[in-house]
Amino acid sequence: MKRPTTWIVRVDLTTGNVVRSAVDGSLSQSYLGGPGVGWRLMADALAPGIDPLSPQNVICINPGVLVGTLTPGTPKTTVITKFPTEASEDGKHFVGACTAGGRYLGLALKRAGCHHLLITGKADKPSVLRIRDESIDLIDASNYWGEGIEDVMIDLVEREGPESGTIVIGTSGENLVRHALTIVDRANSLGRGGLGAVMGSKNLKAIVVNGTGDIEVADPARFIEASERLRDSVMQWPRREHWIDLGLAAGWDTFKHTQYPGIWPKDRWDELYGEKTRMETVEDVIGCNSCILGCRLRWRTKGGEFDGEVGFGSPFSKSATSGMLLGEEDFRRMIHFVADANSRTGIDFYTTTRIIDFVTKMYELGRIGPSQTGGLELCRDYDTYQKLYEMTVNREGFGDVLADGWMRLKRDLGLDPQEYWYAGICKGVDFIYDARPSNFHPLMMTFTTRPRPHHGGSHTRTNSRNKTLEEIRDQVERWGLAKETIDHIFTESSYSGKFNVGRYTRYMEDMMRVKNAIGLCTIYTYQGLLFGDDIAELYAAASGHEMTALGMVECGERIHNVAKMINVREGFGRVDDAIPEVWFRAMESPEGRIEMQDYYQTKTLVKADTDRILDDYYDERGWDPRTGRPTVVRLEALGIEEFASELAA
Amino acid sequence: MEERKEGESPGRLVVLAQNCRGCRSCQLACSFEKHSVFNPGKSMIVMERDLVNGRVAPMIKPIGCDLCGGDPVCASACKYGAITYEAGPAREKIVVRPWSKEAS
């Protein structure tokens, strides 16, 4: 049995130097591979305290261990970097991981032998990093600067060939908008929190990758047997037929309750943004590589001022929540807005539209006026939104303030992000869900506890309402947790209801690290299609290292603690994990008052309750609940005592 | 089974481009079957990429494809019905039905 060799490729954009080295086998065993190993590399590669938009920042790109192996739902590449979003009033920035699938990128990286691609420095002019197997160079991208994402992607693929994987930034990334993201291939967004601006700060317009190498597994016969068994079991999913017709446009009946912004009555929202509008707009569902479900969309607008417009991605949920927040009744206009952000400017649509909503309302209330907006009158209409969007992307006038995100609104305009009425903000990032309509389930918790406040692969069954306790329990049982551990999680309490969200969240985060390490899409675990025991068997056959489900969770815990320690040395602690204040205020909606309740809606949660849940989370992690940081004992138990000195600092 | 005439194939692969979601499972299954590695470049299938319309479709290279001896792995790997296999004598080994609005 031959264990596949994996490679670290370090590229310095300042000098053009490229250094390639093999990954030490023991590192793969402790950290699984993919972004697990990537996190450990970042602990050494990234100096603490640096400006995320300086040449010292590192972009660490890691396709998952099972990417390109025909395993259902394993297309994901994870990127680790220090994000430019201002995470606190005292200027901290989190180091986080973001993930994306795609048809081409992960596969191309692995075929080119780039299992961990670490990019640092700054190119002297706008450039594209071009990878053709071991030949890696920078090509002049002056003609791309100022151009939209989709046009650049098409040109690059025409030049480099149809197998090319791409990561491209738009104009917002060039202009260092702190919430600029990137687009992978054509339909997958990557990097909420500002990966696009990090690339822009390095003069890096795009990365284009081609490889010709083999993707090997240690034990081919064992691997394909396990992989085929999984494919067969996923095919039995009763909802598959509906899902492959509508992809991410499916699920409105769940979505309209869990992500309800509380302004219109629900039946009006149904009419304006519901399943009917989705059915008439979706043309194709697009699969990432090895996916046998598919979720991304190719859609076409019919009627209205954008008749015939075609776009890629998943515009429906974004357009529906932001459409209600902004009071825009024409879903086609909002879909156009999402499409422009995806295909041209690369700005984070959630953050952009919510900031627009916030400042417009503050203007209406007289909290800010023309002297702050540079004379611009902020009206609640589509034309004004479009103007503010362009000004943000280009950092023009008032847009320059908006381009720096929530913290600058507080600094410059005295508008506290905690006043914002929807979703909630933690570490400078607005969540895509709100715990009041959603209830306080583990994903809500992980938004606040994980270093980068976005889901990034941490969904479980509890994302949907009212799943049975058996189903929720089954999900941790199939990851091999001990019975006592599970019983402890499922002990009823006055503050968390029928199960302990804090304790559950710990394992959910560790599983998220595992999923990202191997490249598994969270939809497969969220829908209850794949579990830890399935993944362990595949991992063992692919890597040549025997593995159990529990063994994977333990590696996930190690990875999570390394990620946490990198953030501890950036100054993060319990105070930064605070639950957004808005969740404790009732949402006054036409459907009545909506308060944050426990998962089974037995009681309204107050701060004393969530404080206890947070205590339990730290306790389950073996961390210090006062500081919210790992303990020396825990680090030693995980074999990562080299980080203990950071705790004293 | 009907008797096969000179020059005929024992069966045929039917490609229905309309159904392709671009997951590339066919390519990975093919290279694994023939070489025990995953590598689209070693498969008998090229994934066409229509950049203008954003569509993809598998193109199977007839020369070199042996239909896996009558049980082609590309067809069993395709879960979207874009590649199917029909056993029985056929004049052409690969039949392609291109993308069209009417087909589905």
Structure, explained:
The complex is a heterodimer of chains A (649) and B (104). By secondary structure, chain A is α+β, with helices and mostly antiparallel strands. In chain A, 42% of the residues lie in helices and 14% in strands. Chain A has three domains: 7-210, Aldehyde ferredoxin oxidoreductase, N-terminal domain (Aldehyde Ferredoxin Oxidoreductase,  A, domain 1, 4-Layer Sandwich), CATH 3.60.9.10; 222-250 and 262-421, Aldehyde Ferredoxin Oxidoreductase Protein, subunit A, domain 2, CATH 1.10.569; 440-648, Aldehyde Ferredoxin Oxidoreductase Protein, subunit A, domain 3. In chain A, the strands form six sheets. Chain A has a six-stranded mixed beta sheet with strand order 2-1-6-3-4-5, sandwiched between helices. In chain A, helix 12 (315-326) crosses helix 13 (331-345), helix 12 packs parallel to helix 14 (349-364) and helix 20 (442-449) crosses helix 23. The radius of gyration of chain A is 23 Å and the shape is globular. Helices cover 15% and strands 31% of the residues of chain B. In chain B, the strands form two sheets. Chain B has a three-stranded mixed beta sheet with strand order 4-1-5. Chain B starts with 8 loop residues before the first strand and ends in a 7-residue tail after the last strand. Chain B has a single domain (9-97), classed as Alpha-Beta Plaits (2-Layer Sandwich). Classes of the chains: A alpha+beta (649), B alpha+beta (104). Chain A binds chain B through residues 68-70, 103, 107, 111, 154, 157-158, 162-163, 186, 212-217, 220, 224, 231, 235, 244, 284-292, 294, 298, 310, 312, and chain B through 21-25, 28-29, 32, 35-42, 46-49, 51, 53-56, 77, 79-80.
